[in-house]
# Entry
Amino acid sequence: MERSDSSNSAAKTRQSEIRQILAILHKWGIHTIGQLAALDKQQLGARLGPEAIRMWERANGQSSRVIKLIRPPESFEESFEFENEIETAEPLLFMLRRFLEQLAIRLSGIYLVAKELTLRVTFTDKQIYERIFKIPQPTNNVDLLFRMLHTHLENFKSEYPIVAVALSAQPVRPAKEQFGLFEATLRNPHQLSETLARLTALLGADRVGTPVLEETHRPDAFRIEPFTWHGLPAHLIGRMPMPRPALRRFRPPAATSMFVSKQRHLQSETIRGQVVDQRGPYLFSGNWWDEKSWVRTEWDLQLEAGELVLAHESQGSWKLDGIYD
# Structure
């Protein structure tokens, strides 16, 4: 910051000096470059200083200033403002198809492909809707890209008419990757992306993705993250170690009642019967330091019909978590 301030100050000082020299030259009757070039260089420098000499040299073509060529970054964006407000998807899809065709031609001309699309829709109330589309396998295929946009706009709704639309593409060089003999990848990444887009439109973004376990000891605690495909060696696919026995978990856990007489009886909408064997109680708790604190007691119960179930008791109520295979 100090260096920038000093350079700005030096530039201002030089400009002030040039203005003073020009004022003096005008008083001498020097108003053109030719008149300045006709003056004696040494005498001009002795009277007005080195800055006047530099001006004389530029006037006589004895100094050169190298110009550095800087190419501005190319922007791959298309936009259009509608003359009339539109309330249906057909005109919007028509313009988006044209945008994709133009962007594909421009990208292909410099051997690039699109890895990301950004859609911006402007409404009559000046609000702007923006959506970013991640392309699983960068491409310039207009049909594939248009199908991605069309799938999203099928369930798109707005309260106000549309007055403008813009579409931009983020370019990247085509990927060149050779997989090993024992590596597996998706056969059609675009079909998977389209399927995920349809599921997201039907179920919501928070219900489609990859389940990830949270860093807690709370049973069945997970969150949904956006789907990503990193690829796995073929000899590992389908051979992931699974716990034995597997638990077929109920989501949400089924409400359960526990009756105790001479024997314990479990009753729920899913399963019911007399408890003939049990293991527990297993005490679990966590997040005692914040408002998400939880405490539960788990039991492994075997019913008279042979079912082996997992149930837990929390705050005086019973829940059936699942059945062991």
Notes: Confidence is low (pLDDT under 50) at residues 231-239.
